[in-house]
Every structure is written in C-alpha cells, then in structure tokens.
C-alpha cells in the first residue's frame, strides 16, 4: 500500500449533534474538496518503492490494476511462512523488521525519509488529539486508562505524566520492552522533588483479545487496521466491555476512493515484509458500537500527506 496523493494537513472534529466548540478541531470548511492519502502502516515505508500518483489518474490506474492483483496473495504467503493467520503475521512483523522501522518512525531520530517523517507527524497528531479528548472533561490524575496497542509508549507515557494510572499492552514483546525503557527514562529520572513522581505504566505483552479488567477509559489507536471487519466488530465490543466511561478508537476509514488507492498500493509491496491492512467504514464501526449500547460522542479526522486516521470517542448510550 504505497500509493499516495498530495494534500495539506487537516484536522476536523464534530460532536453529534452539537459541533465540538474547540477551534483547534473546527476549521472552516473549504470550498474545494480535499483528497486524502492512505497511511502506509501495512506497506514498506523505506522510501524506495513509493508510487506517487495524481488524484485523477489513480482511479483509472486502480481500475486497470484490479484484475491483475490478488490482494490476498501476500497475506496468505506471510501467514503460511509464520504458521498462522493475521495475528501471527502482525506479531512476527512487529517483533522483527517492523519493530525497527516503527521505532524509528515513532522516535526522534533524523534518520527518516520524507514519508516516514510525514507519518510521524500524522501519528503524533492522532496521539495529541486523543489526549485532548481525554482531558476535555478534567484532569487525568488517578484516572485508569488502558492503552491497547501501546507501541513504543507514545500515548502511555504522556498520560502517566498527567497522573493517569495506565495499563499499556501490545502484541509485540519488542514494542513493550522499548515502551517500558522509554517510560523509565522519562518518568523516573529528573523529577522535581516538590512534585509527586508519575506512576509508571503497567506494561504487558498481550493481544487485544487477551485484555481483561475494568478501566475508566480504553484507548486503541491505529490498531484496527490489522483486523478485518468480520473480527473488528467483536474486538470493538470487547474493548467497550473493558471501559466504564469512554472508548477512544482510531482507524483508517474505508471509502471507495481509499479502497482503490490501497488496492493499487498492494501492487508495490516493497522489499520488506509488511502486515495486511484493513480499512473500516465509519458506519460499520458505529453499528458495532450501537450493538453493545454505546454511541459516538466526538469524531475527528487527522490527515497529512501520507497518513489519515478517523478518531472517535464513544460513550455508553
């Protein structure tokens, strides 16, 4: 999935039925429609295999390419190689080449190309806006939060700094080890003696299905891309069952245009193994929440040139 269209960064939030009043989330609508690009968490992003295609030509190219591509072929090959399905592929990827790639993207090193830097900015915006959602109703001191799919701790560590009691989990042992290392460096050193030391997050190696317990809030950012819709419904229901008050999710939204872009991108998988990417229609996510008695309270869209993510906050109906 290495096919992109240029665009400017935008962030939009709405709170049904009343628009969210924070001006940071409510830019004035533009007269010309914006074309969004697909984030490549499932593609090699080393800058060597990017196919840059103009917005109007990509649909035509996609239509021509659909008959030539088997979008499941690479997924089946990877699954056979590691002896399992999507979950095993994701675990293997983020414990090996994926860990090294995404540690660099999520980090602060200058050793990143233009695409990786753009993805870093997009993901950071998603984390920033998730924190704004979390703090909109007051301080996080003592609030229990589960960061499901914590990666290298981009969300867990800032939440701990604000006093939240954080449980941070990830399917990748390498990611969890890196997150814990960074948390110790940031949270346990150089603290002001007059201020209470932040509580270290509890880090655990777990997939989403294995999560248990009860939390005030559950947050799951950019993880549903690894779940097909047939499994995403059950996963959304499971995450909601762990949350007492709020569930914050981000996912790559599925539209006809995005789906065509993704299919073309699958023609250029690059030299490195990558995970299968799944887009999700916002209506399907909302329907899954309604089935378990939850409703969407806030919605946002974070986009950069090579990254897009739909961010929602759900609460009990």
Secondary-structure topology with pairs:
Blueprint lengths: L2 E2 L5 E5 L36 E2 L2 H12 L6 H10 L3 H9 L2 H10 L7 H22 L8 E5 L7 H6 L3 E6 L2 H15 L14 E4 L9 E6 L8 H14 E9 L4 H10 L16 H10 L2 E10 L4 E9 L1
Parallel strand pairs: 1-3, 4-5, 4-7, 5-6, 7-8
Antiparallel strand pairs: 2-9, 8-10, 9-10
Helix pairs in contact: 1-9, 2-3, 8-10
Your description of this structure?
The protein is an alpha/beta fold and 317 residues long. It has ten helices and ten strands. An eight-stranded mixed beta sheet has the order 2-9-10-8-7-4-5-6. Strands 1-3 form a two-stranded parallel ribbon. A hairpin with a 4-residue loop joins strand 9 and strand 10. Helix 1 crosses helix 9 and helix 8 packs across helix 10.
Give the low-confidence spans: 1-71, 78-83
| Helix/strand structural class | alpha/beta
Q: Outline, from the CA principal axes?
A: globular
Individual helix count? 10
Largest sheet: 8 strands, mixed
What would you report as the Rg, rounded to the nearest angstrom? 19 Å
**What is the residue-averaged pLDDT?**
77
- Percentage of helical residues? 25-40%
- Let me know the number of strands: 10
Strand content: 15-25%
Determine the N-to-C terminus distance. 36 Å
Name the strands of the widest sheet in spatial order.
2-9-10-8-7-4-5-6
Taken in chain order, the helices and strands follow as EEEHHHHHEHEHEEHEHHEE
